[in-house]
Amino acid sequence: MLSGAVTNRYTQGLFKFAEQQQAVDKVDESLKLLADVLGAHPKLQDILNHPLIDADSKANAITNVFGEALDPLVARFVKVLLNRGRGGYIAAIYERFHALAQAAKGELTVEVQSAMPLAEEQLQEIEKHLSASLNKKVRASLHVDPDLIAGCRIRVGDRVIDATIRGALAQFSQKLVSGATKEGTL
């Protein structure tokens, strides 16, 4: 299980150093590349997590896979993580770093789940309304989930705005169940 405190400590250190070097965007892009590849190739992540493979061999594997594609700061950071047995934290660190980088620019990415694909205009309208209410430049990431039946669910950090038929049915069902347990009801 990954520790949020460990993730935050490493991310904060990397972010502060990247700010000093004026390399936040480059580091963000490099971490995204690294996290995406590790997510797409679980065997590479397994190598980084394997307790019997030494840190130098793991670092060499990263160098062989990514070569010059990784920003030198990220390559050094990954070596530090691997030397400390924290290779499993890379994806979590990227997510946190990306959120910090966006916040520093006054941006926010929200996840929009929809029962059906949305037109670009609809997505832009959602971004416009959320930008106005949150006072940030909002970018929407769309995911289609037919199980929602109709409507959409918007996730902003830890908050969820559920405007789906599935959500409405679940709320209605909960009200029926809780109402039926009161005295004098069926």
UniProtKB/TrEMBL annotation:
Belongs to the ATPase delta chain family. F(1)F(0) ATP synthase produces ATP from ADP in the presence of a proton or sodium gradient. F-type ATPases consist of two structural domains, F(1) containing the extramembraneous catalytic core and F(0) containing the membrane proton channel, linked together by a central stalk and a peripheral stalk. During catalysis, ATP synthesis in the catalytic domain of F(1) is coupled via a rotary mechanism of the central stalk subunits to proton translocation. This protein is part of the stalk that links CF(0) to CF(1). It either transmits conformational changes from CF(0) to CF(1) or is implicated in proton conduction. The keyword Ion transport applies. It is found in: Cell membrane; Membrane. The keyword Lipid metabolism does not apply. It holds the Pfam family OSCP. This is ATP synthase subunit delta. Keywords: ATP synthesis, Cell membrane, CF(1), Hydrogen ion transport, Ion transport, Membrane, Transport. It comes from Alicyclobacillus cycloheptanicus. Its main location: membrane. PANTHER family: ATP SYNTHASE DELTA CHAIN (PTHR11910). It is a peripheral membrane protein.
